[in-house]
Specification:
This protein has about 190 residues and is an alpha/beta fold. It has six helices and six strands. α2 packs antiparallel against α6. The structure holds adenosine-5'-triphosphate (ATP) and nicotinate mononucleotide. Adenosine-5'-triphosphate (ATP) binds next to α1, β4 and α5.
Length: about 190
């Protein structure tokens, strides 16, 4: 089985993430997509970062009706910050019969060469890159192990959603209603 791994902070998960995961889960070569919730991105320090358990709850609420999408808390018990190669290595050892592919947004491609052991990630796992508005150019787009997903750009971000919440503006349709319910009831991001 080939699993597409979609790593992220998901602070919170939004329709952009879900559309990307769904497009990838429908690709003939991918059987499932796993959202891997990262406690701490090595490159991002944010005061507004919710606890990983709350972010995982929102991911689970968002995907509850889709059997092809799973949530993973594998990084919760691993050293922080969350280095993707360490998680990929661990998952590969844990599931020797599975093939893992990495899914990332195009905005992350520019800094990808600075990720820990990025060459190894590229050669061993390969990248599926989902186009994103305002992404910087990257030579990696022409790399043989990088596949650009042919699907419409989605101009939505977790940053925008957090700002809407702070300004008391609606986030309806930007996140699934189950996620919106959690955000409201738990007073996240206010
Ligand atoms: N609209 C989008 N289009 C393409 N890729 C996206 C989009 N939103 C998120 N991603 C990708 O999803 C993964 C997880 O992203 P993340 O959880 O940081 O969301 P984000 O919206 O970029 O958050 P923030 O605004 O807080 O930085 C990353 O690989 C990111 O590039
Ligand atoms: O492994 C690395 O060096 C590395 C550097 C930067 C980001 N990452 C991972 O990339 C994922 C995307 O992060 P984010 O915050 O943009 O959602 C998240 O899982 C991070 O842990 C990983």
């Amino acid at each position: 089985m080939t699993v597409g791994l979609f790593f992220g902070s998901f602070n919170p998960i939004h329709i952009g993430h879900l559309i990307i995961a769904n497009v990838m889960a429908e690709a003939p070569e991918i059987s499932q997509v796993w959202f891997v919730v990262s406690p701490q991105n090595p490159f991002k320090q944010r005061k507004s970062l919710l606890h990983e358990f709350d972010r995982l709850d929102m991911v689970n609420a968002a995907i509850q009706d889709n059997f092809n999408l799973r949530a993973s808390d594998i990084e919760f018990n691993m050293p922080k910050p969350s280095y993707t190669i360490d998680t990929l290595t661990y998952l590969t050892e844990k599931h020797p019969d599975y093939t893992f592919k990495l899914i990332i947004g195009q905005d992350n491609l520019k800094s990808f060469p600075k990720w820990k052991n990025s060459d190894q990630i590229l050669s061993k796992y390969g990248l599926y890159v989902y186009p994103r508005p305002n992404s910087q150019p990257s030579e990696l787009l022409d790399h043989e192990n990088v596949k650009v997903i042919d699907s419409p750009m989605l101009d939505v971000s977790a940053t925008f959603i957090r700002k809407c919440i702070k300004k008391n503006q609606s986030i309806r349709y930007l996140v699934p209603s189950e996620v919106e319910k959690l955000i409201v009831s738990k007073k996240f991001y206010l």
